[in-house]
Specification:
2 helices; elongated
Length: 141
Amino acid sequence: MEREWLFSLIPLAIGVAFLGIGAYGLRRASVLRRSGVTAEGRIVRHDVRRNDEGGSFHHPVAAWTTRDGRECAYSSRLGRGSVVGGFGVGTAVTVRYDPNDPRRFAIQGWDTPALDLLFTVLGSVLTGGTSVVLLVRLVMF
């Protein structure tokens, strides 16, 4: 086997990274679903973040009061290109948060696990496919 197999490490590394990111997000969502506490909150503003290409992403900031009386206001980890549906400033939302660390939260209807699932599937395909190709090349040569 010559040096071409080294180029297979690129999709393998990308696949492992995607798989790790997706698995972390799905695990986080699962923990919130099982042990999280719900609270009624409001969208108080949108943090707008720009990427290197000039695109902007809106991250709603939800404010709520925990069961023990702490006031919380945190920005969602997921941003979108525009504010869609009923997530404008002042909108009442349901928040599911970790009672031990309220910074770990999800706005129901906004923070969906679809992106984490996409990363997990793409990472699995890249990692599995590249591993199979490397194994076949190893056995054949």
